[in-house]
Amino acid sequence: MKKTIRDLDVKNKRVLVRCDFNVPLNEKGDITDDNRITAALPTIKYIMEKGGKPILMSHLGRPKGKADKKLTLAPVGKKLEELLGCEVVFADYDDVINEEVVELSKKDFEKILLLQNTRFRKEEKENEENFSKELAKLGDIFINDAFGTSHRAHASNVGVAKNLPNGVGFLVEKEIDKIGGVLKNPEKPLIAILGGAKVSDKINVIENLLNIADKIIIGGGMAFTFVAAQGYEVGKSILEEDKIDLAKELMKKAEEKGVDLVLPLDYKVAEEFSNDSEWKTVSYENIPSDYMGLDIGEKSIELFSKLIKEAKTVIWNGPMGVFEFDNFAEGTEEICKVLAENDIISIIGGGDSAAAVKKAGLEDSMTHISTGGGASLEFMEGKVLPGIDIISDK
Q1: CA-CA distance, 312 to 320, in Å (whole number)?
Q2: Is 180 a catalytic residue?
Q3: Among this protein's residues, is 85 annotated catalytic?
Q4: Do 260 and 315 share a domain, yes or no?
Q5: CATH number for the domain harbouring residue 225
Q6: Which of 154, 164, 319, 351 could disulfide-pair with 373, CB 3.0 to 4.6 Å?
Q7: Is the residue at 81 inside a domain?
Q8: Known active-site residue 248
Q9: Active-site residue among 65, 374, 382, 383?
Q10: Shared domain check, 324 and 228
């Protein structure tokens, strides 16, 4: 068990918090989705209620180790003020940390301090020791509340944690409890639903879940590599030819472990990768050579829905089709609805799966939606996440 913020006395302390404020911005620089900011609020509020001073740091986008004013955290500071109803001092320094920022960290305990984008410094991604020590001067305690970057060993998480008493915030604690709990001791039957474009992105997840799942449903573009592995044509559908043997191997492993690897029975296929392309539904054995699969068909939706209803726990990572196109979003949307309407422990991986659930307006009906796409994937693979591993044990 990792130490949490509850295990540390934050009163009269400067609490340096690694948040995940990597929010989407429009061309004007306005935030278009503030979910990652609202997810950090419980930890920030707790520090303030207990008499500590929150000093917040995060990256935003990919500035490639130098200042880029299009990726400033200034809009995040304004949004935090709006959501918290208190003043947020934004340390708008391109070098992120300097003597002025250290002085700001010691002033006005009733105010929140927000640092500039940590990735304005190339030392951040390099986990450079001196930069980590400089950042550590800003706090008496360090809290990692950025699950979305915990699979990366950077200066603002792993580096700082080496230099300060530390723990995880409420957001990271929840991710560990919900995803980790299901991986260690799931309520059975457990079904994993895996989609997305490539088998190569999910190899390790499949192999890890073969040890705990009763059934694994495969959808999305990655399913066509399994179709090809069975000797059928996939037309112009996405295909990883170099992974066909791997797909055969995974099917064999599933059989040996007594896990049902369930593939789509039919597909919505079209001639062009476009929402407006004419489409038809065909069985998996009969995909025409000049067509591409863009969603699962009705028989697949019916089969997958039936299996999901029989489950006690479902882990879902990856859409069933090109859900960004309304005409090819039905498979993904129906999975969302079945999970929402039934009494199932539903763990949704970050990224596209989370986006699909939000698009369907069903976030409140899911047990847990992860805030980290890559991090949740690596967690499901059974990998050690450096940003969590570095945190002190209780």
Answers
A1: 21
A2: no
A3: no
A4: yes
A5: 3.40.50.1260
A6: 351
A7: yes
A8: no
A9: 374
A10: yes
